[in-house]
UniProtKB/TrEMBL annotation, chains A, B:
The record's free-text note on cofactor binding: Binds 1 divalent metal cation per subunit. Can use either Co(2+) or Zn(2+).
Catalytic activity from the UniProt record: 7-phospho-2-dehydro-3-deoxy-D-arabino-heptonate = 3-dehydroquinate + phosphate
Pathway as given in its UniProt record: Metabolic intermediate biosynthesis; chorismate biosynthesis; chorismate from D-erythrose 4-phosphate and phosphoenolpyruvate: step 2/7
Positions annotated to bind NAD(+): 111-115, 135-136, 148, 157
Location in or out of the cell: Cytoplasm
Keywords: Amino-acid biosynthesis, Aromatic amino acid biosynthesis, Cobalt, Cytoplasm, Lyase, Metal-binding, NAD, Nucleotide-binding, Zinc
Presence of the UniProt keyword Methyltransferase in the record: no
Species: Rhizobium alvei
Encoding gene (name): aroB
EC number of this enzyme: 4.2.3.4
Stated name of the protein: 3-dehydroquinate synthase
Domain 3-dehydroquinate synthase C-terminal, chain residue ranges per copy: 187-336
Domain 3-dehydroquinate synthase N-terminal residues, every copy: 74-185
Length: 373, 373
């Protein structure tokens, strides 16, 4: 265990400030880190059937060594688990475990487990302490930080949830070694996003060093820490997404629509892949609106393609619905105000901004063009 | 319409401060009051089958007159509606109605509709604007003020929910004329509670004027306004129940246990009746612990009895479970910290305080004595 390269990112939210620890061996050390911060002796651990075989026993042993009793619940893996039904199951499990106010609910898994568990922790007894142990790159750099929780509805993704900040995030960089290449890449899309929002230097660094980030070690921990810090800075300034925080949705409006269009079928498209295509579309749309150069869109596309991410809608296996239906999915997305469309667009590399008056007709013609319809 | 006797109580919560308007004719005037505060033109109205026939049409007409389109949902009446299933239905209805950020969700009904609807409004798009139009005395003086929302679980009452403050509360005093005597009395238990917490003068005033409060007119509006102000003051100081706000639970720990013991069967016991019995028990238990005089317990009992409220467990129709089971329900109640029992006890008339180290054994012997077992 090399703790020299461990990083600590602090999310500054007043009396709800918390640490994100990033580095190797953190699951094995979880008990100590948790016991140093929380007094409770009962913890519900929510995980999924893919993660449990690898990390549930090491985690519960580490907690047991500190005298903390665990109550595990293993759910099916996959986006479909972010449902009302599983939300009910988790709430019931936490209540049955008699988790009290100094105890906590632990999410051990990727974004799905984190979002679902955080929502349950946010509503059981109107708010229970909550710890994130993200096991995917996507969850480590994005969903585990910032307190957004939720489930999907038949009307769209993440439409039901609460803001509920964790008390601690443990991002164990070792666990990423067991991720599939595809899953790691999907998380990398969010890493690249922070560069494209407002860190042109970071994006350039990624263009030159992405292979080291994929390989592991210090470059990877650095990329995760820069990403967490970028998100923590935005969240500290705009916890409830009244303005600035919307920038984090770069690539997500198109991305969510594509996820909905593929019925959240991970065989066809996972979230990070949707974001990758969405970021390219956002840059292309910015060029079309004469906000940024087409060269920038090509540069972004080239980098995401180099790491092996999909960059256009025709790379999605199977049929896509017509442009009208994608637009319908976009208007049902959260980022709609008074009927006008809100998109994150850009004026240059790392110069993203919130455009809240995008004409639906422009989006429709753009999508038609891109779909070749 | 006599607006001279209308009262306005302001809940001081910074940028989430809001008005509670109390007086006659407010449902007919709802459109104007809402349009003066919110820009949105789409409102979901959640109500129940008892309330809808009387007030849904006047409300939607009043909103239509201001160009506001309504999307009504009529649910079954009764405590069982505070379930996961109906929560899902309400969330889905609000999403289907495409309620956006300047629009609102309106709860038109008693505490059940208010708690359920507020919870849904608190989680749809991670928080949607919310208006309370309480139609019972209980909801007007208690549940519609302060932002506590939630549903019941098989583990207990109100165990799942969020804090979500309304943007406006319209307490139309005319609607109380159509309440049954039993329902009005149940709400009156909460009115008396504010006196017993820390307003001895108000309790004395009620002892002398309760008949006018029951009759309607200015005394009733005054009693509602004093109650709302009392609650608003506590909520402004302790929105999330970290301390002071717990005082509002006077009578509720015993009361909730009795509600659970009667399976929330309103034929046997409604919430306010549980609170009435619970307040008498809390005063009797305070006397038993040598904190207050037995005379005070008798005085409280005499007043609640005079207005027609039940004051002892043997007035509840049907069998009650043994004392051990009631204690079990109390320990599963929200107000438990580190295994110790928290009760609101009193040192005198209007001198309630939070006792967080009550020995379970004392509660058990007290309950055994009271049940005559």
């Amino acid at each position: 265990m090399n703790t020299e390269i461990e990083k600590n990112v602090r999310v500054e939210l007043g009396d709800r400030a918390y640490d994100i620890l990033i580095g190797p061996g953190l699951i094995a050390r979880a008990g100590r880190e948790i016991a140093a911060r929380l007094k409770g002796k009962r913890m519900a651990v929510i995980t999924d059937e893919h993660v449990a075989p690898f990390y549930l026993a090491p985690l519960t042993e580490s907690l047991a060594a500190e005298g903390i009793q665990t109550f595990p619940l293993v759910l099916p893996a996959g986006e479909k688990t972010k449902s009302f039904e599983h939300f009910m199951t988790v709430c019931d499990h936490v209540l049955a475990a008699k988790i009290e106010r100094n105890d906590a609910v632990i999410a051990l898994g990727g974004g799905v487990i984190g979002d679902l568990t955080g929502f349950a922790a946010g509503v059981v007894r109107r708010g229970t302490r909550f710890i994130q142990i993200p096991t995917s790159l996507l969850a480590q750099v994005d969903s585990s930080v910032g307190g957004k929780t939720g489930i999907n509805s038949r009307h769209g993704k993440n439409l039901i949830g609460v803001f509920h900040q964790p008390d601690l995030v443990l991002a164990d960089s070792d666990v990423l070694d067991t991720l599939s290449k595809r899953e790691f890449r999907a998380g990398y899309a969010e890493v690249a996003k922070y560069g494209l929002i407002d860190k042109p230097d970071f994006f350039e660094w990624l263009e030159g060093n992405w292979q080291s980030v994929f390989a592991g070690g210090e470059a990877r921990i650095n990329a995760i820490a820069v990403s967490c810090q970028a998100k923590a800075d935005v969240v500290a300034k705009d916890e409830r997404e009244n303005g600035l925080r919307a920038l984090l949705n770069l690539g997500h409006t198109f991305g969510h629509a594509l996820e909905a269009a593929t019925q959240y079928d991970s065989a066809r498209l996972v979230h990070g892949e949707g974001v990758s295509i969405g970021m390219v579309l956002a840059h292309q749309f910015s060029a079309r609106m004469n906000l940024a150069s087409p060269d920038l869109a090509r540069r972004v596309e080239a980098h995401l393609k180099a790491v092996g991410l999909p960059v256009s809608m025709d790379q999605i296996p199977g049929e896509l619905p017509p442009a009208e239906q994608l637009l319908e999915a976009i208007t049902q997305d959260k980022k709609v105000k008074g009927g006008k469309l809100t998109f994150i667009l850009t004026r240059g590399l790392g110069e993203s901004f919130v455009a809240d008056d995008v004409p639906a007709s422009e989006v429709l013609s753009f999508l038609k063009e891109k779909l070749g319809s």
